[in-house]
Protein: Phosphoribosylamine--glycine ligase
Organism: Plectonema cf. radiosum LEGE 06105
Amino acid sequence: MKILVVGSGGREHALAWKLLQSSEVERVFCVPGNGGTATLNRCENISLAVDDFALISNFALKEEINLVVVGPEVPLAQGITDYLQSQGLKVFGPNKAGAQIEASKVWAKTLMQEAKIPIANSAVFNRAAPAKSYIKDHELPIVIKADGLAAGKGVTVATTRNQAVEAVEAIFRGQFGGAGEFVIVEECLIGQEVSVLALTDGLTIRPLLPAQDHKRIGEGDTGENTGGMGAYAPAPIATVNLMERVQKQVLDRTINALRARNIDYRGVLYAGLMINPSGEFKVLEFNCRFGDPETQVILPLLETPLEELMLACVEQRLEQMPPIEWKQGACATVVAASGGYPGVYETGKVITGIAQAEAAGATVFHAGTILNQQLITDGGRVLNVTGIGENFEQALGLAYAGIEQINFEGMYYRRDIGYQVKG
């Protein structure tokens, strides 16, 4: 079969890499792909924009693509699935109505309240003045969220009232564009975050291995939020008992609530959880697609062919699939970022050392790279240097041994990824 992957990040490189491991997958095309997908065997980058649905459709029909896999949230929120399905194409990824679960935090909050899913206390505002008044009357720290899509950066955990007020003002000033029409002010939950990504055909929903991301730019989880500076899986804090409760109280309830709204949701449902020290959890947010960098540590451990699971979701026969099979062991990834990220950063820096990193035992997934005679940086998060091992010590050791071989001007990475499972 021939598969088209939409997107250009580390997640899409990992998806293409995993799909190509199946003997059933003849070829993968990436729109637009990156420097890493450009070098995969039986993979070809196609220079089209992810929001040019007509040209993507024309290409897919011409090439007789059997399955389109949509990576990023933005084209999903814009309705790429609806458009491609209207042209007769099979698409893994929710339709526009389903993608609201990520595209609007306010919409998602309402859905979760109706479904009795455990969430933080919060309030929604469309003007700054009442939001500021609410902040004055509530305990610190407090969380400020932009309503819509903000590339993983629309959340501020404010430790002072001034910081909270500044975050509210920045959102209403348009820091995150259309994501700033509403602001959510939310209680700050204490504990460890866990990402639970699940596959669903709209009727049945099955979780993948739980993962832990490291969102802050600085070591010790300090500094600004990012799209993710590293991750590992499976997350030990997500015990079998906890995952059973997540299945019943979050995943099943969410799919039932979506169906009650006549939303046929087929793709990934990604629940971001906060687990407190006593083992209780609440949902922080939902995403409508594979996580990044969680995908880069979940897929290397997957034994069941990925395209079989995706087709089962698209064709609404997930319940008939046997249990998902996993490799024993652990996987960890460390993000190499451009200097200045998540703020202003430069691109166009020459990257060296990837062959040496892979010779040292790492798997390197490209995120913000392009291949133009030389491999050069083209984004804030540039590479995901990944280790797969029998345990976390081995996996993290391989990832860090690999990243030490890589260099580009201004390169930055956290040296404490996986600190929760070290030692």
DSSP finds 13 helices and 22 strands in the chain. The longest helix spans residues 240-260.
